[in-house]
């Protein structure tokens, strides 16, 4: 993770999820924090490792008395501390490879989109385990990919399938629950029903100017639901949903460990 520690703040911000520039991508991340907050009924002390620009802090502030928000990049932490002046939040530069978290043990530790960056994920998991209170949980996420090393992302060291990630986690934790996020079940149903709909095929043939792309969402939703029985809003929402059904085509894997 040393390379990530050297990224300048402007480059980091250009690639980080931005609720204003890319609200759908930001919601993917925020839903993981909401899921973590629901999964632990009463977390009082929470850590957000790899906290980035603080997308999860508003969610965590709603459930925790104290938050340790940490990142390996000093510029990111400095920027975050300057823009989130709230009591109960401690900011820090921290590398999960170096040892257990500072301070008292934690009820909940969030580690979203971090484990794929680590040179020794098993050692990091042991550090997290040592940082938990009895009954505490680690909630983490990673892209759902084929197993093995990766050269496709400049800062990813590993990529994990759901099965491989679950196997790694079970070596270090007694409780392991694995979930899918962004499995396109309704979209597949929608595409199948579109292909089987005579009305949809007729409209496509008539729409030689591709005017359907300019139709307001509400009207498109109504027309598609009438032709296929599938709600387009539900199709859009499912990319954020965290589902206990494991699916190979899920975009991300979310896991709960304790």
Task: Describe this protein with a few key phrases.
single chain; 258 residues; alpha/beta; two-stranded antiparallel ribbon; 11 helices; 21% strand; globular
Structural notes for this entry:
- The protein has 258 residues and is α/β, with parallel strands linked by helices.
- The protein is built from eleven helices and ten strands.
- It has helices spanning 2-5, 9-15, 23-39, 57-61, 74-83, 121-130, 162-170, 185-195, 198-206, 217-228, 232-237, and strands spanning 45-49, 66-71, 89-93, 106-112, 132-143, 148-149, 158-159, 176-181, 242-243, 252-257.
- The strands form two sheets. The chain has an eight-stranded mixed beta sheet. The chain has a two-stranded antiparallel ribbon with strand order 6-7.
- The chain is globular, with a radius of gyration of 21 Å.
- The mean pLDDT is 82.
The whole-number mean of residue pLDDT values reads: 82
From the helix content, strand content and strand pairing, which structural class follows? alpha/beta
Order of helices and strands: HHHEHEHEEHEEEHEHHHHEE
Strand order of the largest sheet: 3-2-1-4-5-10-8-9
- Report the span from N to C terminus: 25 Å
Radius of gyration over all CA atoms, rounded: 21 Å
Short description:
This protein has helices at 2-5, 9-15, 23-39, 57-61, 74-83, 121-130, 162-170, 185-195, 198-206, 217-228, 232-237; strands at residues 45-49, 66-71, 89-93, 106-112, 132-143, 148-149, 158-159, 176-181, 242-243, 252-257. By secondary structure, the chain is an alpha/beta fold.
